[in-house]
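We were asked to recover a plausible sequence for a given structure. The inputs and outputs are reproduced exactly as logged, with field labels preserved.

PROBLEM: sequence recovery
POSITIONS: 551
GIVEN STRUCTURE:
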């Protein structure tokens, strides 16, 4: 029977203690494992940001203003260069979005105003970034996450202004495990090949660190309290599956960890074929992508095409023709593709939307709700998806984010079908949708459960709050019960219900989700082999037994 005091774990692999992380495990520490794999070696802590010098008298305001502008341009150019070298995918898109923030005219104007008020360039930059950070942090939700990104951008701008190297990843010239209080998207996206694993003191299962580490195939543990107290050079091991961090390993133990990881990766490299349980029950294994650059062989299609990345760095809405080209590039290469329409709003601000600020953006105009104020955006996107599908002959499915009521599902389905899109679905990201899953399925052809947001709204826990990471653990029984309710409704209606949140890529959780009745799992490409192999070790009845234990 599952322990009611912490997330369920039918395999019994979680350590006893504080579910928020940092608990001692056999002489080590533990947090939340967010990217599978094992590694061992010396740890090196992230360098501290540059210190501000003492304020100085401003003798030439024009020179200080020019220094502000030059620093912001330097940061923007550096991020854009990193983005171009990232080769597409999540890393490139995140870096481009950060470059857009650094290039924000309002930020520059605030810094210039601070110079006019008598501050020197470094302190003017610090004041402007701090003001913007406080504004975003007060709004909560996704904007609070952007506030943390502003800290990193501020440190980079101040360093550029002072003529210091940009803060970044250590380069000791040998393999090491990177340890940090937290990692910015720019840092995580720019990791070198000498970084073999990541451990952070803060963060959660849906943080940028977790998402990008999975994309790189790096073992990663977040929410590991006490990790930064260890001295540089301490030999540690990292298990990205269980979240355990061993401390003070012998040479023999290091060799064993590395050997075990190498053997596991070699075994998974030979994995192929469709998803199946040990007794042949089919489970589609699909990819989460942001563009054609994220496509990889080995999956059975795309379960989540996040189209908002096409819109992120734009001050004007992408044209119909641009959208058709982007969608067709994916459709032509991926077979079946489930397209999520624009998931944006005041919690994920896009300049061209020009939506007014809200007191609580996570509970405001976002996802499908943008259609309430800007219906033309969805009309153009549906037209483009339909045209790209016709041009390529692809099996294109389309689904709306943040669907809350059956009426919203019906309205979206009607507009999509009017354009010839025959497979129309709804994302389940709020408890109201899960509780009325049967009524949603009376209007649409499938459901896709976004466990990241569904966790946030079920537990009233900000996805980025470092102290609440345990509430966002996908093993939480309340979340599993909502997933089961959706799967039960799908089974009764004879319609598919998939999971496309980060939980889908957890090989330990995959049998539980299948046992609950989920018909497909969509994940980062690096997760597909291990999920495939784990499912192949359990019969459907065993999956159901694990699901009963977890609930």
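RECOVERED SEQUENCE:
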């Amino acid at each position: 029977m599952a322990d009611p005091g912490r997330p369920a774990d039918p395999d019994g692999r979680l350590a006893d203690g504080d579910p928020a992380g940092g608990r001692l495990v056999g002489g080590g520490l533990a947090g939340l494992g967010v990217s599978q794999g094992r590694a061992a070696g010396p740890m090196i802590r992230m360098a501290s940001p540059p210190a501000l010098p003492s304020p100085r008298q401003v003798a030439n305001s024009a020179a200080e203003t020019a220094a502000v502008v030059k620093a912001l341009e330097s940061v923007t150019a550096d991020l854009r260069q990193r983005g171009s070298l990232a080769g597409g995918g999540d890393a490139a898109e995140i870096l481009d979005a950060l470059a857009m923030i650094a290039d924000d005219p309002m930020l520059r104007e605030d810094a210039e105003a601070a110079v006019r008020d008598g501050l020197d360039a470094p302190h003017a930059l610090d004041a402007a970034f701090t003001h913007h950070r406080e504004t975003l942090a007060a709004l909560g939700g996704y904007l609070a996450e952007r506030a943390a990104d502003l800290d990193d951008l501020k440190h980079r701008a101040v360093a550029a202004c002072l003529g210091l190297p940009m803060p970044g990843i250590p380069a000791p010239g040998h393999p090491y495990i990177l340890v940090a209080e937290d990692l910015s998207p720019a840092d995580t996206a720019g990791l070198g090949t000498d970084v073999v694993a990541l451990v952070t003191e803060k963060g959660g299962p849906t943080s940028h660190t977790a998402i990008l580490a999975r994309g790189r195939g790096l073992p990663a543990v977040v929410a590991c309290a006490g990790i930064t107290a260890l001295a540089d050079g301490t030999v540690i091991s990292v298990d990205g599956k269980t979240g355990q961090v061993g401390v003070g390993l012998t040479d023999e133990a290091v060799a064993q960890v590395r050997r075990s990881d190498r053997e596991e990766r070699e075994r998974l490299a030979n994995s192929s074929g469709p998803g199946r349980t040990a007794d042949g029950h089919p489970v589609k294994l699909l990819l989460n992508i942001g563009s054609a650059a994220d496509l990889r062989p080995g999956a059975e299609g795309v379960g989540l095409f996040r189209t908002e990345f096409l819109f992120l760095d734009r001050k004007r809405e992408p044209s119909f023709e641009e959208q058709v080209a982007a969608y067709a590039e994916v459709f032509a290469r991926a077979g079946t593709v489930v397209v999520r329409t624009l998931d944006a709003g005041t919690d994920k601000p896009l300049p061209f939307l020009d939506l007014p600020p809200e007191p609580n953006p996570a509970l405001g105009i976002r996802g499908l709700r943008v259609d309430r104020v800007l219906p033309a955006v969805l009309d153009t996107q549906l037209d483009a998806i339909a045209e790209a599908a016709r041009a390529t002959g692809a099996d294109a499915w389309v689904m709306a984010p943040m669907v809350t009521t059956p009426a919203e599902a019906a309205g979206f389905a009607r507009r999509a079908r009017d354009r010839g899109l025959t497979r129309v679905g709804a994302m389940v990201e709020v408890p109201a949708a899960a509780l009325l899953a049967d009524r949603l399925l009376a209007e649409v052809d499938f459901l896709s459960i976004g466990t990241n947001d569904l966790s946030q709204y079920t537990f009233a826990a900000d996805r980025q709050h470092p102290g609440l990471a345990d509430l966002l653990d996908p093993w939480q029984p309340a979340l599993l019960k909502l997933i089961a309710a959706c799967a039960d409704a799908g089974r009764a209606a004879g319609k598919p219900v998939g999971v496309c949140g980060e939980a889908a890529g957890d090989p330990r959780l995959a049998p539980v989700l299948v046992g609950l009745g989920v018909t497909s799992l969509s994940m980062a490409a690096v997760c597909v082999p291990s999920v495939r192999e784990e499912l192949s070790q359990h019969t459907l009845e065993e999956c159901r037994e694990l699901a009963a234990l977890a609930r």
